[in-house]
Amino acid sequence: MEKELNELENMSLVELAKLKSDKDVNALYLKLFGQNGNFTKLLKKLKEIPQSERPIIGILANKIKKNLEEKISKQKKLVANNQLSDWLDVTAPGTPPKLGHLHIVSQTISEVTRIFERIGFTRRRYPEIEWEWYSFDSLNMPVNHPARDDFETFFIDLPPNLKMGKVVLSPHTSSGQVREMERAGKPPIRMINIAKCYRPNWDISHTPMFHQFEGLVIDKGINITHLKGTFEYFAKEFFGKDRKIRLRPFHFQFTEPSFEVDITCGFCKGRGCRLCKEGWMELCGSGMVHPNVLKAGKIDPMKYTGYAFGWGVERTYMMKQGLKIDDLRLLYSNDIRFLEQF
Fold first, then answer.
1. Which residues are annotated as a binding site for Mg(2+)?
2. What sections of the protein cross the membrane (predicted)?
């Protein structure tokens, strides 16, 4: 049997060297290793030889198989790259590389930006590494607030500042509110701040790093009707005319009154599923800017009012009509089969 294996290897290598097409190389592979291939048939004869010789023949068979598979794989690459052709046309155009596209989160950020720019919002960005003062204190959040615990916020191991407090990875884009007030100096303010945020959560609708877009409008006479009108406009532009939103009274330290905004689930169309549970998906925290926050930004709350909101970019995209993405973590899975669909 040793002789037969060696002869089969030599004959196969001679035949392989003559092949010029991918189809012929594949045919040779099946001829050798298919269900009724020559090599497969030889291996079936192992049980016919003395038991003492089987280990030696088995080692030889594995070595020959590995060698043939490597040679066949190499020949396939040569054939695919046209390296076996006897003639080369140097004037022929090269094969262009495949063009990629923006990640779906980047696409969403661009779309959101365009929608808000049409109604006068200006795009801003503020630091991802932030001080506690901008992330919490200036937003009317006391020292003992649960959001300031280390199981809700990433703290960076750096010396704290006497005025600004500890250094954190920005847990929300709301930290840009007072920064924008400081930058603008005085109203009117109409800002959209889109940036990365960080919280130690990981489940079907949360990832440790995510994106938010923060809206802030401050001027004379701003009220809840302006806030609701902005949401209605955005929902119709981004999700489509058939989707519905609702405002639920809630509590946030930096707005008063406060609301959470929900939209009918795009995955189950409001019937209820494992993602939304009851047909609605929470997208946004919002409300009228708290007077203490206006004071922190050196704006007189007796003259000016405003509203603010923070939306999750990934969660917003998941609710787009017809997508049926039921796990936020898919967006960061780096699975090319998933990403190429968008």
1. 256
2. none
